Protein: PI3K/PI4K catalytic domain-containing protein
Organism: Candidatus Azambacteria bacterium RIFCSPHIGHO2_02_46_12
Amino acid sequence: MNLFEKFFGEVAEKPKEELKRPPAQELPPFAPYSPTKENKKEEKPEKKTHPLSTPEEKKLEVGEKTGSFELQGTVNKVFFVKFEDGAEGIFKPKNGEAFTGTSVEKGTYFKRERAAYLVDRFIGFGLIPPTVIREIEGQIGSVQEFVPDAKTAAETLEHEKQAVASEMFKVWILDYLIFNTDRHGYNWLIRNQKIHAIDNGMSFGVRPGSEDEPFDHYFAHFNAPFPQEMKDMFEKFLSWEQGKEILRDLLLELLNKKETDAFFRRVEIVNEFLAQGKIPYAARNGLTFGS
Ligand SMILES: Nc1ncnc2c1ncn2[C@@H]1O[C@H](COP(=O)(O)OP(=O)(O)OP(=O)(O)O)[C@@H](O)[C@H]1O
Ligand SMILES: [Mg+2]
């Protein structure tokens, strides 16, 4: 029995109203994909459109590619892809991943893109565009929904960034949880006062080092009170036992056990800070990315 069947095989046969949905927590999408040979053999075409997948994810998972072009000037190979129903995505094939010299092994970035998205969905921050794993023309990789008409943070004026300050706090917490060491100004987009956190492949690493320090824009959040909305979301996630269990199993398909356990330890650390109402400045040294 694979993970998908374990959690949703039974649920899928029950009428909708019988679903035991966790209170006030939006069920995250569970998009079947085939990261292992074993899953690939078992996978039947109808599973690709399970009712719990969001429409956005389904489109990215099963849509036939109608056109694509490669973006220029990127470190990894990055393609803009258009699908038959008009959906647009950013495809980052495993084979196009470049060696970066960090603790994150080349050939695993695409899985981390998906893992980061799952964490964001389960917590409910809604910062990372839907991200799935699929094959396109024989190449496995991540496909992330394209955010049109957005500016990168690097191209955004300071006052526009001020308007998303409380969203930025969420990005800080998310990046700490996923240990993302790469949130520079081209890896977060702003559109209509909303942040879209893209390029999450350099996440869940374990190596300590000065290059893994948080970016300057995070320091503003030390000693600042947690925004209430963020506190509420995180607390809901913490009390959602079933969700945490499912998330652990899903992460274990994408990351190793050490990385998965480290993520859940960081969840506990954030929980402690929530209880204190803010991140104490003294915690700065213990909160560096990568350690
Ligand atoms: N989901 C998205 N929506 C819109 N634009 C995106 C999205 N994902 C990536 N891009 C655009 O493509 C660029 C390159 O993508 P990305 O940052 O993921 O590639 P990378 O090669 O891993 O990054 P880098 O070159 O910064 O190391 C981004 O800076 C952004 O402009
Ligand atoms: Mg980038």
Notes: Confidence is low (pLDDT under 50) at residues 1-47. The chain has one domain: 35-287. Residues 186-187, 199 surround magnesium ion (ligand 2) (CB under 6 Å).
